Structure to design on (282 residues):
C-alpha cells in the first residue's frame, strides 16, 4: 500500500490500514469467544423427576406418615435418584388425569380407601399404565389397580369394589376371609418377579391394614389378560400383582404396605426399586 501511494505521489494511509487490522482482529477475538462459550455452556438440565402421591392424605394414617420417610430413605440410598421429589395429590383434584398428572414422572396410589373420588383414583392408575410411567399401588392402591385393569384390559366392564358397591355384579375386590387390619404375616414371592428382584429372596414378613382383597373367582380372567400374581400368604391367597417388564417397566401393586418398614428406619426394598425405576425413566 505504501509503495503504491508513493508511485502515485500520495502519502501512505497508515491510519486506515491500522484501523482495518484492528477491526479484523476484533472480529476474530469475538468469534473465538462465541465458540468457547458454546463449548463450555452446560447442557440444559433435565427437570427433576416428580412423583405423584395420589390419595386423600391424613396424618392419622400410618402409611401416609411412612411414605415420605420411605421415599427419603430410598432416595438417600439411590444416587441416581438424588433429585427425586414428590407431591400429594388429593383424589378430589383429579378431574382429568392426563392433564392433571402430565408433569409427573410416576404415580403411587396410596392406602386409605374408599377414596373421596374413586373415579379420579382409577384414572390415575390408567394414566400410569397407559403412559408406561412407574406405578406402585399399596393396600387400597392395589385394590383399585385390580379394578382398573379388570375394567379396561380384562373386559370386565362392571368390575367393582365390595366396600363401595357391595351388591355389584362383578366384585373383583371382595372381603377377605380374615381381616388384616393392623396384622402382619409372611408372604411367599414368585420367582422372576419385580418383587422378587426387589427383596432378593423368596419370602418376607409384611404388615397390613385392610379387609378387602382379590376375589379369587376373577383371578384366571385377570391372568389371561396379562396380569401376573406374584406374592401370596401361607394359604396361597394373593397379596401382590404386577405387569411383566415386557409390557410395562414398573407396575406393581401390593395388598401389604411395604412403606411401613420406614417407620422402623429401614429402607423398604420395593420402594427402593420403585425409586430406581423413576430415576431410570428421568
Amino acid at each position: 500500500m505504501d509503495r503504491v501511494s508513493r508511485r502515485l505521489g500520495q502519502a501512505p494511509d497508515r491510519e486506515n490500514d491500522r484501523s482495518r487490522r484492528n477491526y479484523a482482529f476484533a472480529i476474530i477475538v469475538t468469534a473465538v469467544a462465541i465458540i468457547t462459550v458454546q463449548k463450555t455452556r452446560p447442557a440444559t438440565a433435565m427437570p427433576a423427576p416428580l412423583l405423584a402421591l395420589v390419595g386423600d392424605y391424613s396424618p392419622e394414617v400410618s402409611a401416609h406418615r411412612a411414605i415420605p420417610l420411605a421415599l427419603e430413605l430410598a432416595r438417600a440410598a439411590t444416587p441416581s435418584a438424588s433429585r427425586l421429589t414428590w407431591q400429594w395429590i388429593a383424589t378430589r383434584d383429579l378431574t382429568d388425569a392426563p392433564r392433571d398428572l402430565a408433569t409427573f414422572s410416576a404415580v403411587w396410589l396410596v392406602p386409605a380407601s374408599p377414596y373421596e373420588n374413586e373415579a379420579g383414583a382409577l384414572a390415575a392408575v390408567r394414566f400410569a399404565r397407559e403412559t408406561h410411567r412407574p406405578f406402585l399401588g399399596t393396600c387400597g392402591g392395589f385394590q383399585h389397580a385390580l379394578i382398573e385393569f379388570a375394567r379396561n384390559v380384562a373386559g370386565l366392564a362392571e368390575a367393582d369394589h365390595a366396600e363401595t358397591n357391595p351388591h355389584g355384579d362383578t366384585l373383583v375386590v371382595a372381603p377377605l376371609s380374615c381381616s388384616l387390619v393392623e396384622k402382619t404375616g409372611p408372604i411367599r414371592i414368585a420367582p422372576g418377579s419385580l418383587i422378587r428382584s426387589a427383596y432378593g429372596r423368596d419370602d418376607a414378613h409384611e404388615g397390613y391394614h385392610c379387609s378387602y382383597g382379590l376375589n379369587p373367582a376373577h383371578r384366571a380372567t385377570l391372568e389371561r389378560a396379562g396380569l401376573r400374581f406374584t406374592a401370596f400368604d401361607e394359604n396361597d391367597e394373593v397379596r401382590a400383582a404386577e405387569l411383566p417388564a415386557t409390557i410395562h417397566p414398573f407396575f406393581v401393586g401390593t395388598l401389604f404396605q411395604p412403606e411401613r418398614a420406614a417407620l422402623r428406619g429401614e429402607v423398604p426394598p420395593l420402594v427402593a426399586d420403585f425409586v430406581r425405576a423413576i430415576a431410570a425413566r428421568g
About this structure: Residues 50-281 form a domain with the Rossmann fold fold (CATH 3.40.50.880). Confidence is low (pLDDT under 50) at residues 1-12, 25-43. The longest helix spans residues 14-40. The chain has two domains: 2-40, 50-281.
